[in-house]
Every structure is written in structure tokens, then in C-alpha cells.
Amino acid sequence: MMHLPSQNSSKNEDNASAKSSAALFPASNELYHIGDFNFPRLADFGAAISAANKLQCQQVLEQLDVHKRLQLTLELVKNEMEISKIQESIAKAIEEKISGEQCRYLLNEQLKAIKKELGLETDDKTALSDCGGSYRD
User: Fold this and answer.
1) Which runs of E-coded beta strand occur in the chain?
2) Could you tell me which residue ranges the Lon N-terminal domain spans (predicted)?
3) Whole-prediction pTM value?
4) pLDDT in tens, 121-133
5) What would the pLDDT profile of 7-59 be if each residue is shown by its tens digit?
């Protein structure tokens, strides 16, 4: 793997990019205080670990301007966050539906047991044996 040379951007531009990303990633403030941070490698790493397609990752890796490279990586990360939120909401909706159905089933079973205990309802086996006994007579 060959790293393309980055266009030299001023340290102020890199710091401005880092500060602007602080709103999205609270932990980035801690990274900002580390000192000499390699922003081009951070952008490359972010693109590499993302679930973006190869073309999108390649666009990040080919970008020589560090600020643009960070912007592209940030877009990839934002897209992944949106997808993750959607997946989470779908999973939550499914879980709520399943929980509701399980609760309804449990309550129906409890209701059947109570009715059987009170003699208001008999189960199918009892009803068949009673019916069979009267049929034979």
C-alpha cells in the first residue's frame, strides 16, 4: 500500500477542522490536545474502517487536500451513523411488537387458566372426553 503525499495545509486549518468535528464527536477534543496529530492518516483510517463501498474509500484515499479528505471521511461516518440509527429504530420496533405479542399470549393463557379454575371453560381434552362419554351412553 502506497501513501500519496498530502498537500501541505497549515496547522491552523488542521486545528480548525479538528475543532469543527468536536461537535460531532465529543471525544475529538481529547484527540485535539494530544499534540502532533496526523490528520491525513486519521482520514484514511476512518475511510478504511467504514462500511462504505470501495469507490468511496478510494476517493478519500486519492484526495490530496487534507481538509477535503477529512470532509469526505466525515461524510462517510455521518452516513454510517444515520444507517445505525435507522437499524436501531427498526430493531426497537420489532422488539416492541414481539414483546406485545408475547404479553398478549401470556395474558390469554392466564385468562384460560382462570376460566378453567372457575369452571367457566374447559380445555379441549376435557370437552372431548365429556362429549365422548355422553356419546357412548
Assistant:
1) none
2) 1-81
3) 0.52
4) 766 666 666 655 5
5) 655 556 655 555 555 555 666 666 556 666 788 888 888 888 888 888 888 88
Q: Which residues touch 40 (CB under 8 Å, ≥6 apart)?
A: 3, 6, 66, 69
Report the sign of the C-alpha dihedral through residues 75, 36, 62, 46, in that order: negative
Cell numbers describing residue 6: 498530502
The C-alpha angle 99, 92, 23, rounded to 5 degrees, equals 155
In 83-99, which positions are buried (b, 16+ CB within 10 angstroms) versus exposed (e)?
eeeeeeeeeeeeeeeee
The residue ranges of every structural domain in the chain are 11-136
Provide the 10 A C-beta neighbour count for residue 3: 9
Q: Length of the chain in residues, anyone? A: 137
- The residue among 106, 24, 107 whose CA lies nearest residue 73 is 24
Distance separating alpha carbons of residues 83 and 89, to the nearest angstrom = 10
